[in-house]
Specification:
Elements (H helix, E strand, L loop, with lengths): L1 H15 L6 E7 L8 E10 L12 E5 L5 E5 L7 E11 L11 E7 L18
Antiparallel strand pairs: 1-4, 1-6, 2-3, 2-5, 5-6
Length: 128
């Protein structure tokens, strides 16, 4: 019985230290956009390490018309993690699209686990 209790306690302690990686949320913000014809914004992304960075339809996300010209991006593209750069365009109901905004880069994706280490395990001997 003591052996079962010890194993259960070790499992509970190990599970309490387990946590899923937390996606990093990053906010895109821009100045108040006052064009009355604009109905939304597109966000274009590219890896920061890409040179030259390619912003095209394959990397375009419809951001809609967010309040306060800000969008929180959380795990935008699960298979892409790292420093991403963004440009934003405005569009109207007729399908016209503005030119690109300036570029903004930041970390997106899953945070990296830190302080990985090993520790010896004390052997638990079952009662005889």
């Amino acid at each position: 019985m003591k052996y079962l209790l010890a194993v259960t306690m070790v499992l509970v302690m190990a599970m309490s230290g387990y946590a899923e990686p937390t996606p990093t949320a990053t906010k895109l913000l821009w100045d108040d956009y006052t064009d009355p014809d604009a109905i939304g914004f597109f966000g274009y992304w590219a890896p920061q390490i890409e040179s030259p960075r390619m912003y095209g339809d394959a990397r375009k996300i419809d951001l809609g018309r967010p309040d306060n010209e800000e969008v929180v991006l959380l795990d935008v593209k699960p298979d892409i993690s790292g420093n991403l750069c963004w440009k934003v365009t405005a569009y109207d109901a007729a399908g016209n699209e503005s030119g690109f905004s300036n570029e903004a880069c930041d970390w997106f994706g899953i945070t990296i686990p830190f302080n990985l280490r090993t520790e010896p395990v004390v052997a638990i001997n079952p009662p005889e």
